[in-house]
Write a structure and sequence with these properties.
442 residues; alpha+beta; 2 domains; two-stranded antiparallel ribbon; 9 helices
Length: 442
């Protein structure tokens, strides 16, 4: 089985792309952003914040509700009303004057306080006329949306770095298999040459045994390299969120990245701290409005009566709340808010210094990695030239098999080291792109 043909490579057919331009990771990153479950959770949290803002805006609108109450009562407190004692003498006199019985006698009444067979049905409209807390609440909800958007952008930037590094790791592991295959080709050719020399009595059987042992050792390295490539591919597909079959798609990258050719941008972490400062300032402003009044109005329109009769009514009320004294509690809360603002300002200054340091370190690491990687090409050419000379001498019988195997090992080690250095430079480039906020985040 040809190991090279079985290597996993990136499936990105869903994007309709078969090859990407140099240093353009937008398709890979877009796939990751579209499929990442954690990023989707952040999107739902953003929707939650947007709904909270709409709720805060709705507090300015009137609130209409309908309510009704029906009561049946028996017993309880009552008041005696001597209506008979008061009116019966008058009624009796009137009957005598008129010579009739038009005015009947009345019984004294006992009236219950609890209403029996009584209903009250009404529509109630409530409207805030002035409440400074509503403006603060709306501004806070809007700031929370901005903060959540910044969190999403920061997470996207982190994902972009992870995807690029995962891709470099996979390419390095993939290239290692190719290097070991080339080494195997050299050993096969050395074994064939040694067998020919054995037949001609030029070489000893121990030379062939040593080469075959080296082939077995190389086979173990190939198996390990294939496992490393498989693991690197698994991590890359995990980040991309795709389980599709593999097709050949390789980014057209130069051997080494450009040293800090990408412009720097603004890190989302600093913008998040700015937003946190603004939110703390809203808390300060809320306490600063402690002495402002709160005014509201309420209108009830309905009917209330006994025995389901119709007795419409309208009731308008205005409520006013005005804070006068609270033992300076709001002043202390204001001091807490101001202290929180000052703390956030210091945190931002510290974070800015950290980011600048991170950027400088990433830039230095990138320059160093590029310079180191450039030193390997002369080494590879030298080891290849040395191998050709040793191999020619081995065929002539003037060099032994140990020299040949050592020359082959030097080639393989130089190529592996070059591959590691090359993709290490690309990894440092990804770290610098992240630290400098160079990759555009939508």
């Amino acid at each position: 089985m040809n190991i090279r043909n079985s290597l996993p490579v990136l499936l990105i057919s869903v994007l309709g792309i078969t090859q990407l331009p140099g240093q353009d990771f937008s398709a890979l990153i877009a796939t990751c952003w579209a499929n990442n479950q954690q990023l989707k959770a952040h999107d739902f949290q953003l929707r939650q914040a947007e709904a909270a803002l709409k709720e805060a805006q709705g507090l300015y609108l009137p609130n209409l509700s309908f309510g009704t109450q029906y009561t049946l009562a028996a017993g309880g407190r009552a008041i005696d009303f001597p209506v008979g004692d008061l009116l019966n003498p008058v009624y009796s006199t009137l009957n005598q004057i008129t010579g009739s019985q038009q005015f009947p006698s009345l019984e004294n009444q006992s009236i219950q306080f609890l209403p029996n067979n009584f209903y009250d049905a009404r529509f109630r409209v409530q409207q805030v006329l002035f409440n400074p807390d509503l403006a603060i609440n709306r501004a806070l909800k809007s700031a929370q949306i901005d903060l959540k958007q910044l969190e999403i952008k920061a997470y996207k930037r982190e994902l972009s770095k992870e995807v690029m590094n995962a891709y470099f790791q996979w390419r390095q592991a993939d290239q290692a298999i190719s290097i070991f295959q080339e080494a195997d080709t050299l050993l096969v050719e050395a074994a064939r040459t040694t067998q020919s020399m054995l037949r001609n009595g030029i070489a000893l059987p121990s030379a062939l045994s040593r080469i075959e042992s080296e082939q077995a050792s190389l086979k173990a390295q190939q198996i390990d390299a294939a496992a490393n490539e498989e693991n690197a591919w698994a991590y890359l597909t995990y980040l991309l969120g795709t389980n599709e079959e593999r097709v050949n798609i390789i980014l057209d990258m130069p051997d080494l990245p450009d040293s800090m050719s990408n412009p720097s941008g603004a890190r989302e972490e600093l913008a998040q701290l700015d937003q946190a400062i603004a939110m703390q300032q809203l808390a300060f402003e809320k306490e600063d409005r402690f002495y402002q009044p709160r005014l509201g109005a309420q209108l009830d329109i309905g009917s209330q009566a006994f025995d389901f009769n119709w007795a419409p009514y309208a009731l308008l009320g205005v409520s006013l709340t005005w804070n006068i004294y609270d033992g300076k509690q709001h002043r202390y809360r204001q001091e807490q808010a101001q202290a929180a603002v000052d703390a956030r300002i210091q945190q931002k200054a510290f974070a800015n210094d950290q980011i600048e340091l991170q950027k400088k370190v990433a830039a230095n690491n990138l320059r160093s990695a590029i310079l180191q990687a450039k030193t390997f090409q002369p080494r590879i050419r030298a080891t290849e030239k040395a191998y050709r000379e040793v191999y020619r001498k081995y065929q002539e019988g003037t060099a032994n098999y140990l020299e040949l195997l050592d020359a082959r090992t030097q080639i393989t080690q130089a190529r592996i080291a070059n591959s590691l250095a090359r993709f290490m430079a690309w990894s440092k480039w990804a770290d610098y792109i992240y630290a400098a906020a160079s990759y555009p985040i939508d």
